[in-house]
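User: Show me a protein chain along with its predicted structure.
Assistant: Here is one chain, sequence first, then structure tokens.
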Amino acid sequence: MRVLLQRVSQAEVRVDGALIGQCGVGLLILVCTMQGDVEADADKLVAKVSKLRIFTDDAGKMNLSVRDISGEALVVSQFTLAADTSRGNRPGFSAAAPPDEGEKLYEYLADQLSSSGVPTQTGQFGADMKVSLTNDGPVTIWMES
């Protein structure tokens, strides 16, 4: 699995103009399930993401996790994180998991993150979504399982 974390002061996702998910201070997590990924990959990422110390403490150092600050998460599927740009000018996405497998693991990751103590909302898998955010820092981190 691949995730792109963005530390945010707020984020939201809309489908056809309707707000379907949002978070305040916390993380926008863009998720791509790759071929061969299993629940253990999601578990590994959830454990790391929920404890990753990227929020500032009183001394201004990145020393707190999303759980430490009682932050929230907005989890959005983004298969384009599987892009292969090594040939030509059109990215290939064949490394991404098939949609039915991808959706199952995406939902599993969001559920596990919520179960870990991080209030979590999601986008709509496979939809044309409009995501807006205020990146705090900016802090953006790429992770793979």
